[in-house]
Amino acid sequence: AKQKSMKKKAIAEKVGEKTHSSTKEVIKDTLPYLQVAFKKNKNFRDELMKELDLSKEEVEWLRK
């Protein structure tokens, strides 16, 4: 459970840097939508992976 939480926080920090938002805001307001779009839209997924330099573990977390 702690590993999942760490992955979520790492992703939220990366998104927060790009969007000038706090990690907590991203986890609460943005991450749920990013997960849906990540799963459904290949172009979005590819761009997000590149833009945020996501690790393999972070990609796996977003796909869940």
UniProtKB/TrEMBL annotation:
Q: Tell me the protein's name.
A: Uncharacterized protein
Q: What is the lineage of its organism?
A: unclassified sequences, metagenomes, ecological metagenomes
Biased-composition ranges, Basic and acidic residues, are 10-21
Q: Where do the segments described as Disordered lie? A: 1-21
